[in-house]
Amino acid sequence: MAATTETDHEEHTGTPGEPPAVPRRRGRGRGLALAVSVFGELLITAGLVLGLFVVYSLWWTNVMADRAADKQGEKVRDNWAQDRVGPGGPGALDTKAGIGFLHVPAMGNGDILVEKGTSMKVLNDGVAGYYTDPVKATLPTSGKAGNFSLAAHRDGHGAKFHNIHKIEKGDPIVFETKDKWFVYKVYGILPETSKYNVDVLGAVPKESGKTKAGHYITLTTCTPVYTSRYRYVVWGELVRTEKVDSERTPPKELR
């Protein structure tokens, strides 16, 4: 047996009076690194999913809604051309097909099909809908004084009122039916109000400054953009009507 030296003794026992060295625990460090890596991958995956959802909400729903609106709009114009406005024959109103087209040059998105109702089922097809609840809109085709109140999405699902903020006082709003053009002039704008403020839809929209019965139009949508917290409101008043000619020549405001 080899002799035990003093050096050998110190290597095995350490310096007298000091505790023995504790070996480094490498397993804990590796586990932490693995957890951080997994968490990072989860964040990346969540980011990709969120990105795809945004693309779907703000782009693809617009594509699908525009297709649906175009198809329905073509059906309405075909009915007009064939003099088949409704089940009651020529001159009858078919609210299921759509009652006409809204033109707002300041928003720059062409004609907007108008249908009955303001439910998500209606508006998600890329159209504007006239109110039936909580305040019933007065259709201009009725000839009665009142408020032709409308709503449409500001983002996603066609976003027909996305550029409503570009409308200014004095701008035209034109509603096209089978045989008439209804030309309105914007006189009031409310950039923000509660979504529960139904007074803006009244037959006489007093919040717009009007106190007497007349022929009004009201456009409403959500604000700020990409939220539904408040409502943006635009009011117009009828200035004249024009009969549709054989060429469907638009009024001067749309040329």
From TrEMBL:
Keyword Transmembrane helix applies: yes
Pfam families per the UniProt record, alphabetical: Sortase
Annotated GO MF terms: hydrolase activity
Regions crossing the membrane: 32-59
Keyword field contains Transmembrane: yes
InterPro entries (UniProt xref): Sortase (IPR005754), Sortase_Class_E (IPR053465), Sortase_dom-sf (IPR023365), Sortase_E (IPR042003)
Enzyme active site: 153 (proton donor/acceptor), 222 (acyl-thioester intermediate)
Bias (Basic and acidic residues): 1-13
Keywords, sorted A to Z: Hydrolase, Membrane, Transmembrane, Transmembrane helix
Protein origin, superkingdom: Bacteria
Name of the featured protein: Class E sortase
Species: Streptomyces griseicoloratus
